[in-house]
Amino acid sequence: MMKGMRGYAVVIGAMVLAVVVAFWVMGTRIAEIPGRQACTMEAKLCPDGSYVARTGPNCEFAACPAATATSTLAIGESATINGTTIGVLNLVGDSRCPAGAQCIQAGTVRVSISVNSYNSDFTLTLGKPQVVGNATITLVSVLPPQRSLQQTIAPSDYRFTFTVVPKPTPSSDASAYNSGVRGTVSLGPTCPVERVPPDPACADRPYATAITAYRANSSTPYIIGNSDASGAFTFSLPPGSYTLAASGGTMFPRCSEIAVTVSPNAYVTATISCDTGIR
Question: pTM higher than 0.70 for the full model?
Fold first, then answer.
């Protein structure tokens, strides 16, 4: 019996030794990989109270989370949140399931807001972030809760809570590129009936709105800017392929997306057309 136990102990000891040797060999091979280094266990305090560690091949601190600000507003009120001015215009719809009822879907709340000096309104849906200008705006909560079927909520009783996260530019030296895109955003038709010859009073008019540039095959905004009162915009971009998307309204205006290719040391010209829906 003792010889059997000793045999088991020898086998287990051999297995443990083999595992230790394997880990030592793996560690030695990793250490031999050129450029591989271990980052120091430091942490940086971010403005929101969280911490980030060093990471990546150069052991740089990871980016801090973007600062988030919150404000609760009633219909007709406005506030400036993280540099973005929001005004609550009206309740578009409240389809939340009434208290005590059994609903197939939980429903949602949609509210119309104005943002900064854009001449188009934006409709936010509860819990769905929306990029407007250089910020991401989210309607995070609505009070009061939905009541029973026999009760209605007066528009003046609603309180909408928004968060605003500033959208940083992808590179602090973006303006240093000697390439990019220039163009205009136009809005039309402006008259219900086209005339021959065209009526100058019915010509398309410039449109000031937010424009987002996406890298080809990417859904993440690369840079966000605006067209001015004359409809003109300029983005300094590194060479590559991009999609430009202008912000319209809830239904109209509806703006077409434009694909552009930026060449080295050159600016490409683009024209974005927005449909007013007038027929």
Answer: no
